[in-house]
Amino acid sequence: MAYFISLVLHPLLLPSILLAVLFYFTSPTVAPVSHSLKLPFLGIIFIMTFVFPMCTAAIWLLSRQIQTPQPKYQTEDESLETYPEVNLHMQNRQDRRWVFVFTSLIYVIATVLFEIKAQNPFITLVLASVTLSLLLLTLITFFWKISAHSVGMSGILGILLGFNYRLGESALFYPILIATILVGLVMTARLYLDAHSPAQVAAGFFMGFVVNFITVLVLL
User: Fold this and answer.
1) Which band of pLDDT confidence, cut at 50, 70 and 90, is reported for residue 56?
2) CA–CA gap between residue 176 and residue 22 (Å, rounded)
3) From CA 26, how far away is CA 174, in angstroms rounded?
4) Domain containing 169: what range?
5) Contact at 8 Å (CB) between 50 and 16?
6) At how many degrees (to 10) do helices 173-192 and 198-219 cross?
7) Domain membership flag for residue 57
8) Where exactly are the transmembrane stretches of this chain (predicted)?
9) Residue 45 and residue 109: Cα distance in Å, rounded?
10) What is the mean pLDDT of residues 61-79?
11) Is residue 74 part of a domain?
């Protein structure tokens, strides 16, 4: 269950999930986007914030492992050979930091493109808020391992509460309630999997929530 929660609520999926909730489960006051443009926008956002970063991360990690192959046990008919061990988990901070750098660059490009081409302040605001928290996460990763899952999920909660505070929109009550529960589940899952220490999970929560909440208050 902990693995399932970590997979379904992967940080790179959260921008698409958040915008889908705002598009289809809130009023036009919160998400002023034409109905005919909602699905195309979601498709583009999914590709730019999930598909591109995942492909980039996979290429980077696989190339790293091919360059540093692991020894394979010698058999009676074979000489000692080396083969790369394919492992897409970012188990060291060097892999994490460069994957985060590439992902941050893609998110910056996505935000700028939506600002220039789509000219939709609502989507630009959400992407800018997420991108800012990702940039700070990347900077911190150069010095300390912090929970990206906690940053992402608490960031959604911060954005929803920011919109609720600014707009006073009652339709956000249930999304906020569900997001609060999911924050607890994600943090518990990361601790259960021993992926992070309690300090790293707590730091991720506070950074993601504060950055996104304040960003919405300032820019909305």
Assistant:
1) confident
2) 11
3) 10
4) 2-52+90-219
5) yes
6) 150
7) no
8) 7-27, 39-62, 98-116, 122-144, 151-167, 173-193, 200-219
9) 12
10) 55
11) no
Domain tally, the chain: 1
Sign of CA dihedral 32, 34, 39, 42: negative
Nearest one of 114, 135, 143, 109 to 208, comparing CA atoms: 135
Spatial separation of the C-alpha atoms in residues 113 and 4, rounded to whole Å = 33
Residue 219's pLDDT is: 86
Predicted TM-score (pTM) of the model is 0.83
Q: DSSP secondary-structure letter at 102? A: H
Evaluate whether residue 60 is within a structural domain. Answer: no
pLDDT of amino acid 75: 45
pLDDT tens-digit series, residues 173-194 = 889 999 999 999 999 999 999 8
User: Going by DSSP bridges, is the β-strand pair 82-83/70-71 parallel, antiparallel, or unpaired?
Assistant: antiparallel
* Integer Cα distance of 174 and 33 in angstroms: 21
Judge whether 78 lies within some domain: no
Structure tokens at 167: 């707009």
Instruction: Please give the angle made by the CA atoms of 27, 18 and 52, to the nearest 5 degrees.
Output: 135
Enter the tokens of residue 21.
């909730």
The kind and range of the H/E element at 146 are none
Cα separation, 102 vs 97, in Å, equals 9
Asked whether 71 and 119 are in contact (CB, 8 A), the reply is no
- Contacts for 10 with CB less than 8 Å, ≥ 6 apart: 149
Rounded Cα–Cα distance for residues 119 and 28 (Å): 17
Query: 158-169: per-residue pLDDT in tens?
Result: 999 999 888 877
Q: Which residue shows structure tokens 């506070």?
A: 206
